[in-house]
Amino acid sequence: MAQTSSIEWTQSTWNPVTGCTKISAGCAHCYAERMAKRLKAMGQPRYRNGFRVTLQPDALETPLRWKRPRMIFVNSMSDLFHKDVPAGFIADCFAVMQEASQHIFQVLTKRPERAAEMAGDLPWPKNIWMGTTVENANYTCRIQTLLRTPASVRFLSLEPLLGPIPRLPLRGIHWVIVGGESGPAARPMKSNWVLQIRDRCLERDVPFFFKQWGGVNRKKAGRILDGRTWSGTPSLGGELQVEDKEVVVQSAPYYQRRFELFGTAEAVQPTAAKQTLEH
Ligand code: SF4
Asked: What is the pLDDT of residues 88-98, one digit of tens each?
């Protein structure tokens, strides 16, 4: 488990499951697959099965041992709602997230239909955020499915953004992250696609986070869009106090109402970029 993560929109990663199978265009150059194969070759026991779906029950309770509150990306090396992950194990993960209420858990899936099907059997405390990936306009149906989960924060990861999404549905969505693909075979992302999404988020008061341009040298390409960084993030709740990253809550009347009970956001600094994960 990564105590710290260089992914710009989170602080740590927790992988009670590793491995996955490709499901859509955004998976073509899956970072998790590359890493899993590398770690297997290095003899890392957790990756003995390479990229095959593997439960990691001994990692289940790791977040309970992290006392300092943090934002945690759940299953950066897998997809919690993959069909090969037993429902009981998913429930166990949710129970841990519920108990570790000092943290915010960011669950991101390309399989929101299973999350929606199971939603009635899972706890949804305010510290569990649920997101889905939409890489181009062909996958916006995932957003409607995500709305069937009662998470207090529902978010979209538009990464790797592979095409324009002119009418991005934002009703019931509380956060949008955009990023370009990175790595040797990175597919290009056009600035007008990003600006269109940014403008739509601004119009609808949805926090907008621009993660990266991506490309072969993602560090060099950076994350400046239209002359500045965009680090919009939903308000954190009450006792949820995270450090080390910049959380900028965009002025959002809906948000202010939605998070009245949550209290105010914390000001934190972004960490240096070392890796990217495209779920
Ligand atoms: S990108 Fe995500 S959903 Fe696709 S194969 Fe990789 S881990 Fe699985």
From this structure: 999 999 999 99
